Amino acid sequence: RVGQMNGLSVMGMGDFAFGMPSRVTASIGLGRGGVIDIEREAKMGGPIHTKGVLILSGYLNDKYARDKPLSLTARLVFEQNYEGVEGDSASSTELYTILSALSGLPVKQNLAVTGSVNQKGEVQAIGGVNEKIEGFFEVCKLKGLTGQQGVMIPDSNVQNLMLKEEVLEAVKAGQFSIYSVKTIDEGIEVLTGKKAGARLPDGTFEEGTVSYLVDKQLREMADRLKEYSSFPEKRL
Predict the structure, then answer these.
(1) Active site residues
(2) pLDDT tens, 170-190?
(3) From CA 89, how far away is CA 118, in angstroms rounded?
(4) Strand 4-13 vs strand 177-181: parallel, antiparallel, or unpaired?
(5) 211 vs 31, 194, 205, CA distance in Å?
(6) pLDDT digits over 72-128, tens only?
(7) Are 192 and 97 in contact (CB under 8 A)?
(8) 51, HSE (Cβ side, Cα atoms, 13 Å)
């Protein structure tokens, strides 16, 4: 689906913690609002989560706004979340969701994603990686393992894996997959099946790639916003 991802979170209840998937969606439109965190606007987001969302604007500016203004208003939300949200471990998930919405490319719904991200697009380690993987595995098992389901985690978290035997056996049997990625470019290729796209010497991106489609959309949005801004203002 376009602009929709499965994120992974950890719920703590005393000494017990378990992972669960959360649906993350993004909507985009013309404007200069940048990336808006609906959780923060509703006073349900903590400062670390807010910082993670602000970093997304830094990534988009650094990669796509060097030759044009970022004429974008994007809104992010954890759907059907009625409690507070804290931590930045969903920031890569949120970024993938925005890139999907901008490029128009659907992302796989049989995968769930966790990972922090910095302004340079590097995917960083997070906490609770075992609980998150096992939580999504339990959901997939209840719905029926198809061999297509799996999770995507930061490569730096591989050394922290201590999964229960049932999950390991499912992975060995090809019923469940665990992908490790170092960058957003690696992750978006897994999620869309399209090449991420490198920047060419002239500043553009390889045609037909994810980055090319995102850059094209942002350029068109900047041009449209400029056209609207050129209309004379009418006052009554």
Answers:
(1) 89, 132
(2) 999 999 999 999 999 999 999
(3) 11
(4) unpaired
(5) 21, 10, 6
(6) 888 888 887 767 676 678 899 999 999 999 999 999 999 999 999 999 999 999 999
(7) no
(8) 10
